[in-house]
Design brief:
The complex is a heterotetramer of chains A (232), B (183), C (291) and D (203). With 232 residues, chain A is mainly α. Helix content of chain A is 74%, strand content 2%. Classes of the chains: A mainly alpha (232), B alpha+beta (183), C alpha+beta (291), D mainly alpha (203). Chains A and D meet through helix 2, helix 4 and helix 8 of A and helix 2, helix 4, helix 7 and helix 10 of D.
């Protein structure tokens, strides 16, 4: 697993195809849970842990599982890790367990985990898959925590429960605000991403044109030798 | 399709793989569940710690006599006698936001032979209570010192979350009513 | 480790129940699925399934079908052609070609280009103040421009381009070749059919597609091609040929020496890919005006 | 009376998409045309009804007596995946026109949060009883299936409303970045505001 591939997976996971903003996957927890930073962080880290483990196991078993039973087998492995996380949280972090509530079992059907398992883990070796799981999870955690921050500061005027000021708009606390904030953040992220992407594409294009024009010059200064070849 | 063919066939391979994954995960979960099992005593200890800090532990779990335990606004779930002589009642109030319910721990302290509310804290609430973050400690402090029915309006407890406040008020009232029958 | 497991309070009977239950459910479900598949067995066209595997599977609908499955069925029944799908890579298309016995020639990547340099230089028949959209302007005597093939510059193409590669500069559309993925949306939308596909590495292109004679074009637009034929005569590679009052460049012969760009009195033949950003486009136009 | 209450709560007050945020992925992906939206909605309603019918008894009469409730995620997912696969084959064989309308969405439904969400909320009988003011232990399979059906119909209602709105909204004139997801999310936000009114209904 060369350093370069590691960097590329990292860039892919967090920036290029950030699961929440670029691929728009895993929208159910992003909208429902991100009403406070504590919930978002808890959900993000839980999803990251499950992603790493399930990606590693799935890529370890990828040659054993026949193709017809791929989806049920992947879901089963993911469900196991979700139950492990649920037991762990119930025992050691009960506050997070109650606040995540029904959305903890719903991580099983979270499109990010199954999506990464199917598109990446079932085709790459174990270490790459684990790294991909880590960075996709980080991308998801950053995105959902950012949303949690915005929605909590605007919706409840507090961060992690500590009151900042008494001014609070309920709109951002409930589902309607979640939709709006999520939509605007997708637009913002894509606009920024496209600006850098176009700059990079333009740079490549200019280099490409220079390279092709150099090739043409090289062809020009010895046309005499093969000119007759062309006529023949 | 002889048995030999069936054993080599694709379907058999699928069933075997699924079965193995299921059995391994089932076994792992069963063992982990026992390792990380949360015993009921620990749950109660957790409740006590959340209300009156650590250092206080359980004296006796009193049994609840059924006829005073529940009204149509709320039910008393647990009554604990602490080693400091105070009573800790866990009660659940109904008619919360979107018909959810909120359960709280109410600490009663004996003062001149009347049980007065010393502290109220939120235990847990059903997932539909999206506005629980608006309930503040200053709101809950309004119940302190009460020994009879709480009559204040829900908006005094927390502005903007009147439904959740009514659920909390119901819980405290049912606990107070229960404690009045105790002394 | 093992004695820790034994000493910890693990009820092994519970573990036994769990394993039994899961095994039971797994077997019951497996048998149920087997029975259902036996009862409802229908023959599925093998070729379609194999073709789907090689397609990119993005279900984007760019090929006009509802999804990759529809496109695969169209391919097998001959209703679709492989080049409609822009997303699948060329090697995959080669594989599909032999599976579905289709003919397939890997065409080099192409880029869209706007063949009009009019803008303000093209005279107007009347002042149009209606809805700022080329398609709606066409309803009024097919647009305000005297020249019937001039770009109206109101940006219907910019609205449909998914990549944002086409922009309107000085009232005429310009394509940024570095971003264009040649999806063809703008070509379908432009009511004046000004936009065409040329090879991505083409060094020059003709920025006019009016087939009128020189004298007529002089009256209609000061940037139009007057079919003087200077470019065709001076091209060292003989790559340019005058067809119906317009130069046609044969990109296989063209070596990008750009003598035609210098020779053209009306600056109709432009360097491809030079206009890469908004500011650059303005400088290029000013330079052409002075030169 | 409780049946009427279940219908109102499942379809409007606890609407699957606009209040509880279940099943947003199909809500965004499939709601481009009304035909697809209706097909997807009915497919989800059918799967939800059968899921409630199967998972509720499993949880209450098999898992709880054996004392292994923690297995409920694995068992539910196993059952739902098998159900969807069987359903797809049955519909493909016996009702081809129905399959063309909604069959292609069935594989999508296994990973749909709404189906597992309804299985999780329905199994918790004590919470259900407090909501519907039922006596202790009187919440049975019939109530669960009714709740599942009308939660599915609420989902269909939301996705069809969105499809109708989206056909108008998608060809509006706006900034390129706002097109696509952002404007859909804004429309959904207004719909969620409308459904917020139902939450204030006192049952």
């Amino acid at each position: 697993m060369t350093g370069q591939k590691f960097k590329e997976i990292a860039k892919n996971g967090v920036l290029v195809n950030n699961p929440t903003f670029r691929l728009v996957l895993g929208t159910c927890p992003t909208l429902a849970i991100s009403s406070s930073v504590f919930n978002s962080l808890g959900m993000g880290l839980a999803v990251t842990f499950i992603l790493i483990c399930s990606n590693a196991i799935i890529s370890a078993l990828r040659k054993v599982i026949p193709n017809e039973v791929r989806i049920p087998a992947f879901i089963l492995i993911i469900a196991t890790f979700v139950t492990v996380v649920r037991m762990f949280l119930y025992k050691y972090v009960p506050a997070l367990y109650t606040s995540l509530g029904v959305f903890l079992p719903l991580i099983v059907v979270n499109c990010i985990i199954l999506g990464r398992a199917e598109s990446f883990a079932s085709k790459n070796p174990v270490l790459d898959s684990a790294a991909d799981g880590l960075f996709t999870g980080l991308g998801f955690t950053l995105a959902i925590t950012l949303m949690g921050l915005i929605r909590e500061v605007l919706g409840a005027g507090s961060i992690l429960g500590y009151k900042l000021w008494d001014f609070s708009i309920d709109f951002f606390g409930n589902t309607a605000g979640a939709f709006l904030v999520y939509g605007l953040m997708i637009a913002g992220f894509n606009a920024l991403y496209e600006k850098f992407e176009n700059k990079r594409k333009r740079k490549n294009y200019i280099e490409e044109m220079q390279a092709s024009s150099l090739a043409i010059q090289a062809k020009e200064n010895e046309p005499a030798s093969n000119a007759d070849v062309k006529e023949a | 399709m002889t048995v030999k063919q069936f054993l080599q066939s694709k379907i058999f391979k699928c069933i075997i793989v699924l079965l193995c994954i299921a059995l391994v995960s089932g076994g792992l979960l069963a063992i982990l569940n026992d390792l990380w099992a949360v015993s009921p005593e620990e749950l109660i200890q957790r409740g006590i710690k959340s209300v009156c800090g650590d250092g206080v532990n359980l004296e006796k779990v009193c049994d609840i006599n059924k006829d005073y335990a529940s009204t149509n606004d709320g039910t008393v779930q647990q009554v604990l006698l602490l080693d400091t002589g105070d009573y800790l009642v866990k009660a659940q109030g109904k008619h919360g936001f979107q018909e959810g319910n909120v359960s709280c721990y109410i600490l009663f302290h004996l003062e001149d032979s009347v049980y007065k509310v010393q502290k109220v804290s939120i235990a847990d609430y059903s997932s539909s209570q999206t506005l629980m973050s608006k309930i503040t400690d200053s709101g809950l402090a309004k119940f302190i010192g009460l020994s009879s029915e709480a009559t204040m309006k829900p908006s005094e407890i927390a502005t903007g979350a009147s439904y959740s406040s009514t659920a909390i008020k119901n819980a405290v009232n049912v606990a107070i009513a229960y404690m009045q029958t105790m002394n | 480790m093992f004695d820790y497991l034994l000493s910890a309070s693990i009820q092994w009977d519970k573990v036994g129940i769990v394993l039994g239950l899961i095994a039971g459910i797994a077997v019951v479900l497996a048998i149920a699925i087997l029975i259902v598949t036996k009862v409802c067995h229908i023959t599925e066209d093998e070729k379609v399934l194999k073709v789907i595997e090689h397609l990119a599977g993005a279900n984007c609908g760019g090929c006009g079908f509802s999804g990759c499955e529809g496109f695969a069925k169209g391919l097998c029944s001959g209703k679709a052609c492989l080049n409609d799908c822009k997303v699948t890579s060329n090697e995959e298309k080669a594989k599909i070609a032999e599976i579905a016995h289709l003919e397939f020639s890997a065409e080099s990547p192409t880029v869209a280009v706007v063949r009009c340099n009019g803008g303000d230089a093209a005279q107007n028949k009347f002042d149009y103040i209606g809805n700022q959209d080329c398609v709606s302007e066409m309803l009024f005597h097919s647009g305000q421009k005297v020249c019937t093939t001039a770009c109206l510059g109101l940006g219907s193409c910019t609205k449909v381009c998914p990549q944002g590669a086409i922009k309107v500069i000085d009232k005429k559309a310009v394509v940024d070749p570095s971003i264009c993925t040649s999806c063809g949306n703008c070509i379908k939308t432009c009511p004046r059919v000004c936009i065409e596909r040329i090879p991505a590495t083409a060094p020059v292109y003709v920025a006019c597609h009016s087939h009128c004679k020189g004298k007529e074009v002089m009256g209609q637009c000061s940037n139009g091609c007057i079919a003087c034929g200077l470019c065709a005569r001076n091209c060292p590679q003989k790559a340019i040929e005058m067809v119906d009052n317009l130069p046609v460049i044969d990109y296989t012969k063209c070596t990008g020496c750009k003598t035609c760009v210098a020779k053209c009195p009306k600056h109709v033949i432009k360097v491809h890919g030079e206009i890469l950003s908004l500011e650059k486009a303005k400088e290029v136009d000013k330079a052409n005006k002075k030169g | 009376m409780t049946a009427f209450l279940i219908i109102i709560v499942a379809a409007f007050i606890n609407n699957a998409v606009l209040v509880q945020c279940y099943g947003i992925c199909p809500f965004l992906g499939v709601s481009k045309k009304m035909g697809n939206a209706l097909g997807m909605g009915l497919a989800v309603t059918l799967v939800m009804a059968i899921t409630c019918l199967v998972t509720f008894p499993i949880y209450n009469y098999v898992l709880i007596p054996l004392g292994i409730e923690y297995l409920e995620i694995i068992v539910f997912i196993f059952v739902i995946a098998a159900l969807v696969q069987m359903l797809e084959k049955v519909i493909k064989k016996f009702m081809p026109p129905l399959y063309n309308a909604m069959g292609i969405y069935l594989p999508l439904i296994t990973t749909n949060c709404a189906v597992l969400g309804v299985a999780e909320t329905v199994m918790d009988t004590t919470a259900m009883e407090t909501i519907f003011h039922l006596a202790e232990g009187s919440f049975h399979v019939g109530h669960a299936v009714l709740y599942g059906i009308f939660l599915g119909l609420g989902f269909t209602l939301a996705i069809c409303l969105m499809a109708g709105l989206r056909e108008k909204v998608d060809n509006l004139e706006m900034n390129k970045h706002l097109k696509g997801f952002t404007i859909t999310m804004a429309t959904a936000s207004f719909m969620a505001m409308a459904f917020y009114v139902f939450a204030l209904v006192q049952i």
